[in-house]
Specification:
The complex is a heterodimer of chains A (239) and B (231). Chain A has 239 residues and is α/β, with parallel strands linked by helices. Chain A has helices spanning 42-50, 86-91, 101-114, 130-143, 160-175, 187-193, 211-216, 221-227, and strands at 4-11, 19-26, 31-35, 57-62, 72-75, 148-152, 179-183, 196-201, 204-210. Chain A has a single domain, classed as P-loop containing nucleotide triphosphate hydrolases (Rossmann fold, 3-Layer(aba) Sandwich). Chain B has 231 residues and is an all-alpha fold. The chains are: A alpha/beta (239), B mainly alpha (231). The interface between A and B is medium-sized, with 23 and 22 residues.
Chain lengths: 239, 231
């Protein structure tokens, strides 16, 4: 499944080019964080990698194969929660896998325990707080034992303690051998979690560096401007 | 007018056996039609919501159009099918409660299926990316979405019961409005009004209105409870 090699990826819905000849190589270990201004195509890249959207051009090679041969899971910014119990929201995701119902129940209970939601297993998932919802979504993805976990801004709009809890879970998933590829706008979070940074702007990867080197000295002008909080466009304030 | 209303209330107050028979048969026929309608309409609507095939928009438009199908047309079609020379004539169902159940089912199935399709399709649009990544099959998705949307769908099902209970044309044609056998509330109201027996008509009308109002209250209470309990 790894290394993942993306070459010349192009996506232009209704003629508007969002990704334009994107190249990327990903190893199978660690946490890679995608940074970039709004509209740079971070979420889109995750969806293309997940196979939820077909690219207009380009290739993706998973090791030597055209399709990923390991399990792939994704946690969305607004995760889908069924109007059912917390436990069922994890357990149903294991139904397509070949395992007995007792195995499914056991694994669901285990991951809920690990994300600190075991005490809420019987509660309705839609009544959870924002942080608990994200932990539940992570638990569901974790239960599937993915080889690649895609996370789309998993802590957007969460308070610091909820963010810390989610980050702890992400680290644990990484420690268990899953490759994590995530987007975030939180530079502090990127510093804490990332092994490497992929900086996206103008439809391409402008920079792909180790987190240490990236935060010490971003190479591309776009990344430097982003880090300094500058807008990637000009607004005419004076007339 | 006051005397007629008093007579109607008196019929209700004394649990008039004729009135109770009519109400009982109405409930049996309409609840049977609702059961058949739900068993066919719910999975059919959910399947249409998640399926993709050529001509799907046309099927959806057709299904929506069938929601407004005139009950007399259904009555005539069922009559033709069940009459002695019709394809199902050998079963001898014409002018029986079974024929009325068939006619009401044909009215209820498109209504439940069309509303189910819309409700489930909205949920499917929201859930499809995650469900497809998880590897849920279309068949599993149908079962999952029907369960997830169960409260909205129960309201749709109650609407189906309302359609069945308030229908008059089809049951009049295929049931024949036979006293003590196929006479239901709506056909009895039509007949008794034409005969000038307004007391029984008003009494039956009050029962019908109470049932319809009760269904709406039940739907409202269910929705409020579900929102509080399940979000």
């Amino acid at each position: 499944m790894f290394p993942l090699q993306v070459s010349g990826l192009r996506f232009a819905p209704e003629g508007r080019t969002v990704l334009d000849g994107l190249n990327l190589e990903l190893s199978g270990e660690g946490i890679s964080v995608i940074l970039g201004p709004n509209g740079s195509g971070k979420t889109l890249l995750l969806r293309l990698l997940a196979g939820l959207l077909p690219p207009d051009a380009g290739t993706m090679l998973w090791g030597a194969a055209a399709q990923p041969d390991g399990r792939l899971a994704m946690v969305f910014q607004q995760p889908m929660l069924l109007r059912m119990s917390v436990f069922t929201n994890v357990e149903f995701a294991l139904r397509p896998q070949t395992m007995s119902s007792s195995e499914r129940r056991q694994r669901s209970s285990e991951v809920l325990e690990r994300v600190g939601l075991a005490h809420r297993a019987r509660d309705c998932a839609r009544l959870l707080s924002g942080g608990e919802r994200q932990r539940l979504a992570l638990a569901r993805a974790w239960a599937m034992r993915p080889r690649l976990l895609l996370l789309d801004e998993p802590t957007a709009s969460l308070d610091p303690s909820a963010t810390e809890a989610v980050e702890r879970i992400i680290r644990e998933i990484r420690t268990e051998g899953a490759k994590v590829l995530m987007t975030t706008h939180n530079l502090g979070q990127a510093t804490r979690l990332a092994d490497d940074i992929i900086f996206l702007a103008d439809g391409r990867v402008q920079e792909h560096e180790s987190a240490q080197r990236f935060f010490a000295r971003p190479q591309s002008p776009a990344a430097r401007a982003y880090m300094q909080g500058e807008l990637p466009w000009r607004i005419a304030f004076d007339r | 007018m006051t005397a007629t209303l008093f007579d109607a209330l008196s019929l209700l107050g004394h649990f008039d056996h004729r009135l109770l028979d009519i109400v009982g048969l109405s409930l049996r026929v309409s609840l049977s039609a609702l059961l058949i309608g739900a068993l066919i309409g719910l999975p059919l609507g959910a399947w249409l919501a998640v399926a993709s095939f050529p001509g799907r928009p046309l099927v959806n438009v057709g299904l929506n159009a069938l929601m407004g199908l005139p009950s007399v047309v259904v009555g005539v079609l069922v009559y033709l099918a069940l009459s002695r020379s019709g394809p199902l004539g050998s079963y001898g169902l014409l002018f029986s409660p079974a024929a009325m159940i068939v006619a009401q089912s044909l009215l209820v199935v498109p209504l439940i299926a069309a509303v189910t399709r819309q409700i489930v399709e909205d949920a499917w649009k929201e859930y499809a990316p995650e469900l497809s990544l998880i590897g849920i099959s279309r068949r599993q998705a149908v079962a999952l979405l029907l369960t997830d949307c169960r409260f909205s769908l129960s309201v749709a099902t109650l609407a189906g019961l309302g359609r069945a209970m308030s229908e008059v044309g089809a049951v009049m044609i295929v049931g024949g409005n036979i006293d003590g056998y196929t006479r239901v509330m709506t056909t009895a109201i039509a007949l008794e009004t034409s005969k000038g027996d307004l007391a029984l008509s008003i009494a039956l009308g009050l029962v019908l209105m109470t049932i319809i109002l009760g269904l709406n209250v039940a739907a409202y209470v269910l929705r409020c409870w579900a929102t509080r309990r399940y979000g």
